[in-house]
Amino acid sequence: MCGIVAYIGSKDAAPILLEGLQRLEYRGYDSAGVAVAGRSGALRLRKVKGRVADLAEALPARFKGTAGVGHTRWATHGEPNDANAHPHLDGTGRIAVVHNGIIENADLLRDRLAADGAVFASETDSEVLAHLIAAHTGEGTDLEDAVRRALKHIVGTYGIAVLDAARPDRIVVARNGSPIVLGIGEKEMFAASDVAALVRYTRQVVHLDDGELATVRADGFRTFTEDARTTAKQPSTVDWEVGSYDTGSHRHHLIKEIHEQPDAVERTLRGRLDDRFHTAHLGGLNLDARELRAIRRVKILGCGSAYYAGEMGAQLIEELARVPAHAEPASEFRYRNPVIEADTLYVAVSQSGETYDTLAAVQEIRRKGGRVLGVVNTVGSAIARECDGGIYLHAGPEISVASTKAFTSTVVAFALLALHFGRVHDLSPADGRRICAGLKALPGQIREILAREERIAGLAAEYAKHEGMMFIGRVRGWPVAREGAQKLKEVSYVHAEAYPASELKHGPLALISPELPTVAVVPDDELLDKNLTTLGEIRARSGRVLAVGHRAPDPRHADHAVVVPRNEPELDPLLLGIPLQLLAYHAAVALGRDVDKPRNLAKSVTVE
Fold first, then answer.
1. Neighbours of 139 (CB within 10 A)
2. What is the pLDDT, as a whole number, of residue 173?
3. What is the pTM of this model?
4. Are strands 189-192 and 3-8 parallel, antiparallel or unpaired?
């Protein structure tokens, strides 16, 4: 949830670290810091509460060093302030550590180290690492060995980078549950928690596995395990361009990513539709037709928007393949001692591929012999490597904390999976042709909706004046409503609740008043008349209604309406959600929120 950057080479490290931290600020932004070392044998440290821009202003004109580590923080232990910001130093000021993750036995280790004379300068669990590594650093002890020995005492998760002023020719990094990737340059090396920090300098990267460490020097790297066994790693090439991480002509990353959705959907579909047999090509599943037919149930696991995408995916699988499917929060799944069934296919959903709760659920399933597919956006991510097969989204980098294009591409990936699954089962060629045509139409239809942004922005400014909003939908519209409420609360801080429209009379109707408007997802399907009856009940109680559907309802049913193009009924939820993304974005802008970096949230949740 925080951002790590490290550099070693012949250049001045500080500007490179700052630029990398700016690209990682979406992962954590309550404090930031850098430490550099040069030939003088001393560390130079500067860290501040606030954003990376505040850190840049605080750096002195001469802050030289050719090796350095940097960090942008999302607080877990200790409030955001200068002292709790990373990097953390040992008592002598020789060892600097940046850390992502949580050390579960930090209090015990702190007490032991304090008893041996260590003096702590922060409230963080991370500072324990600096003192622990220093305690294992002695005459003739390599930094690698000191880090390895220190990590044997750690219980918890970590992605770390360690710099020793006495050995400025190397940086040691390690991973356990929190991502670390190496970047290979020309007589220089990089390390980071996300490739976003590296793409300006190199496209050649190496992803560390859990329990793996690396020593990086200007002329190369070596990877090894905690018991000092050397490991062999092959570099891979990052496909994404530097410009993918910039806002371009847009005001925020979020609106840029909303407008990138037609292209993202086209990439997700590219090469995957089979017009001959009216099915989908998904070779990455590593499942043949016989194995697919043996599956009797599908369980989808994700967190936040990934969970809501999974709900849409479960509906698609049930409708098209007629196989029971269910979505569940990954954060709950692994704690209820789940029964893992041999004929169940488990699907893990994560944009980053590093979501800790989802990764832990995958590991639990595999430990019990289950088969897991991954639906992820990041090649080489931990979940992608842990799974038996899966689908890469190819949505492109998503920087804004609130997910939009990755969410939409995830649902498209589930539509492909459901089509492939269905054609192996009993979905007719005619229905397969119908779904293929519907998928091909999606990018153009999304562009149609985005062309109506100005009107949606006006509605958002009006509805944002209310302190809360209710979102409702039935069956296909229900997960759309849930995701719409999630987006609004994430970026605008307007309280939003989602309910099945059929549940209003069972309690939530008591909340209806002129002060609580309702956003209703009302596709023109077999439940339209029932939905209109519900809207009439809201209007009869002086509730305001914004309807999102395929036609404008009678004024008796809605105050305002946003009309979207009609696709196939199974695919309509993909389009119904786009106006709700625009509604959330423009409500946040109208309220003056920090759209890309909403308070208390981080993009990639790599801690429990």
1. 4
2. 98
3. 0.86
4. antiparallel
pLDDT class for 604, splitting at 50, 70, 90? low
Residue from 492, 554, 550 nearest 521 by CA: 550
The superfamily in CATH containing domain 247-442 is: Glucose-6-phosphate isomerase like protein; domain 1 (3.40.50.10490)
Q: Is 436 a catalytic residue?
A: no
Classify the C-alpha dihedral 47-53-58-62 as positive or negative. positive
Could you tell me which of 102, 31, 45, 35 has the C-alpha nearest to residue 73? 31
Residue 500 has pLDDT above 70, yes or no: yes
> Per the residue annotation, which of 49, 487, 597, 603 is the catalytic one?
603
Residue 370 CA to its chain's centroid (Å): 24
What are the residue boundaries of the structural domains of the chain, listed by start? 3-244, 247-442, 452-595
Side-chain half-sphere CA neighbours of 288 within 13 A:
1
Q: Are 189 and 9 in contact (CB under 8 A)?
A: yes
- 22-31, 153-162, 538-547: range with lowest mean pLDDT: 22-31
What lies within 8 Å, CB to CB, of 393 at 6+ separation is 264, 267, 268, 351, 375, 376, 377, 406, 409, 410, 413
First-to-last C-alpha distance (Å) of the chain: 10
2 annotated active-site? yes
Instruction: Provide the CATH number for the domain formed by 3-244 in this structure.
Output: 3.60.20.10
| Second-level CATH architecture of 452-595 | 3-Layer(aba) Sandwich (3.40)
Residue 242 pLDDT? 67
The residue from 2, 303, 387, 436 that is catalytic is 2
